[in-house]
Triosephosphate isomerase (Thalassotalea nanhaiensis), 249 residues
Amino acid sequence: MSRQTIVAANWKMNGNAELAAQMCRGLNDEKFNADQQVIICPPAPYLALLQANISNSQIACGAQNINENEKGAFTGEISALMLNDLQVQYVILGHSERRAMFHDSTELVAEKVAYALDSGLTPILCIGETLEEREDGETESRLSYQLAPVIAKVGIESFKNVVVAYEPVWAIGTGKTASAEIAQQTHEFIRSYLASFDADVAQQVPLLYGGSVNAKNCEELFAQADIDGGLIGGASLNVEEFKKICQAV
Ligand SMILES: O=C[C@H](O)COP(=O)(O)O
């Protein structure tokens, strides 16, 4: 079955109003494949600016995180309702930087995914192993450990509205991409793990690869059977390079 292909930009804490304007100018007139979605996830202050200036119906915006509460005294946080207000459709959850630096535990990520889904947002759920875990042969157990609480919380049916991004921590921002073979093997495992809950749902979930993807290595990665696109960090800060990546999927 054919799945939606997605190229998502995660600017992390980078970019400015000028990059937002350049990105809109550069991408609005691009022609993408019929089933393709492009998602730009800037820092929250630039969401409204991008939303207002994107005119291509295949480009959507995403946030990089939400709080698991509806509203209240949570200084510095943003809520799903605020994203609804701006008509933002996607939200990255469980990124390894948030798990490592901001204490987003697997249970908290599951809560955030549940809250995002309840609010009509589409979560881009990030999972991935460290280099040590890979070398110790723990990749699969780590990935299932990260997926299991989310499946337990929201149910496998809800994964029809979830995008999963596999991002090996050792490949993020390091210039060391997983080889296409390793990435495919791992994506195949993720799909088979989801299939152990529901085979039909597993076939529908877009699985993105993230970790030092650039205009040179993306084609081989995107050609793999279980890689449905990418979550792009550093290379998404350059409009021309990001365009090439979008065209390669
Ligand atoms: O969310 C994006 C990933 O962390 C990948 O970042 P990167 O492309 O800079 O390695």
About this structure: DSSP finds eleven helices and eight strands in the chain. The longest strand covers residues 5-10.
